[in-house]
Design goal:
Helix content: 10-25%
Strand order of the largest sheet: 1-2-3-6-7-12-13-16
Largest sheet: 8 strands, antiparallel, barrel
Number of helices: 5
Radius of gyration: 28 Å
Amino acid sequence: MKKLLVVCGFALLGLQNASAQSDSWAPQNIAIGVGVGTTGISIDASTTFSTWLGLRAGVDIMPGIKINKSIDLGIQDKTQGKTVAEMNKYIDDLNARIDNYNAMPGVTKIDKVDRSLLPERELPNKLDLQGKLSNTTGHVLIDVYPIPGFSFHATVGAYFGPSKIISVYNKPGQEGLPEGLTPISQWNNAIIAAKANPTSLLYTQVVKPNNLDMIGAELGDYFITPNPAENGNVEANIKVNGFRPYVGIGFGRAVPKRRLGVQVDLGCQFWGKPKVYIPTYNKDANTYQNEQIDAERAGDDAGKILKIVSKFSVYPTLNIRLVGRIL
């Protein structure tokens, strides 16, 4: 983003130097602005082409806001009411039959559940999650001053940035879980393999008699669980469009007539319908994926929340800039 600001500044300075001839459409002045608002902290360069037309380009740095929360893994709910202590016993039972399973012809070998990666070598009751807002953007805006002598302006342009604006993931370095949820993935893979091979000892002597199931969370029609390909980590995201057209109004000039000035903007970024993605396992297709969640299939409570989130297709923008003219 710093490089972008430098490039914008040099581009505007280059246009200024190119206007040696008196051309009413060439850049006339250059200013640097610093602002604060709903887009974070903005830094930009601006110029004017006439008394009624201005141009701004820069970056908006959104501070990284993080929220920590612990959730119940729901192990007991997903294992026919068995306690975590009982589940830990079944880890040994599973591991005792996995070598036999791997020796079967034509099967894909699976890993044992690695107790050394678990807190106190036992399944945890909870998972520490961290949520992060990430919405640093760049912008290019054109100001039009329709009333001569007044600083009122209409603005059009665009903001652009990452599509992923909110992430929720297992907290790095959680005590006792240095490898994320790898043991959960190992457990799940053992259950999947056993059910796919109902004649194996893994199924007939451990999974079936103890009614064991995969560990994860039910969300309507979705089953949320770690993807083994992600090294035991889980991450859910809210995504919007990376390119976001903008319209707005305001007061103040892109380049003030005096050395310093103030510019106020109010408008909207059109970033499209937010989409929610979570790591899921499809039991019918036997596949892991990072899946976009449909509100109609997410259950009553989650579905209501998703429907509300999907309505925020515009992002309100309020920004106050302090502008200093340098040329």
